[in-house]
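Q: Joint fold for the lines below.
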Amino acid sequence: MLAELSVRSFLGQLAGGSASPGGGATAALHGAQGAALIAMVCNLTIGRKRYKHLEPQMLASRQHVQILLAQLTDLIDRDAGAYDGVMAAYRLPKQTAEDQQMRSEAIQVGLEDATRVPLETMDACLKVLTVGESVLELGNPNVVSDGAAGILAAHTGMLTAALNVQINLNAIQDEEFIQESKTRMAALKAAGDNARLRSWALVEERLGM
Amino acid sequence: MLAELSVRSFLGQLAGGSASPGGGATAALHGAQGAALIAMVCNLTIGRKRYKHLEPQMLASRQHVQILLAQLTDLIDRDAGAYDGVMAAYRLPKQTAEDQQMRSEAIQVGLEDATRVPLETMDACLKVLTVGESVLELGNPNVVSDGAAGILAAHTGMLTAALNVQINLNAIQDEEFIQESKTRMAALKAAGDNARLRSWALVEERLGM
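A: Joint structure:
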């Protein structure tokens, strides 16, 4: 599993001459870095006298981002796996008309799977952005730059996953699937962009940028 | 060393209740992901008949981003180390006036180091963006979404590092150091934003976004 590789080996595999892992895996890793940084801000707020009144909310936020961190860490591998599924379909035999028909259908099924995975990454990144916004606002201001880094990471995870949704949709034939996916992608992206903008206004004010 | 931890353990350390590793380490990791993805596009272009005429340029670009990948991987640890240096200075004794003077000077030295490291991360990310722009333009168009993911990652590495430059400058007293650092940060950021915009126009055209 990619998440069990050392950071250095993961980067080496990414840089290598195989198309997998690629951008989709990094989308999930960006999102996971975002979730981890928001969890860190919670951890540096929980248990401090000054923020005692926020304890229940910070505990709930921490639990939420820890679940998102686990989901996004799994998505690193699931994205690479979905891509490998498409590649396996492309390698199916194409001698007879029947072969060609089966191969073509398998490629389409693979591409739809490989579209659903980055859509799930986008959804998880949006949730990190939403929890992150309130943690950034209420949490320990000494680590505001770490919370802000978490917002940037989750937003980039979302934009990177959208690239993978788009490139797969370009090869998909089912018009209904394409339209549904595009609508979903646009809604997630709009919500993510808004959450990032709202958080950023706060970051610039707090950091004096 | 952080780069030798598994991806899962690194994320766990990031999420934990210590301020280090934090946003600065993720800035370097985003940049390293960007360098690795640009190297991948080079690797999927080199050795293919259709791109034979680009071979010398792609080999040079790959060598350049591999050096940047190594530098940014080191910066994951160097950023965490610089932060630990500041924390160690804060823990120095402050009983006597002399203690206080020494501690205060050590904190300032530590903060200046902790500012230079993310400035170096910004510089390396800008170089990834610059090489990435030409690789994206000329390289194998089948992996354009991976190249685009590399551009996003390197640009986010730069923005994340800028947060750390800013938060350290807020606690630094030397006005000349502050002004020099701000000028350098602004120049790096402007160049990085421009490189990202230029690449993005190409990505949107190629992906039909």
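Q: Anything notable?
A: The mean pLDDT of chain A is 96. The domain at 22-207 of chain A is CATH 1.20.120.680 (Four Helix Bundle (Hemerythrin (Met), subunit A)).
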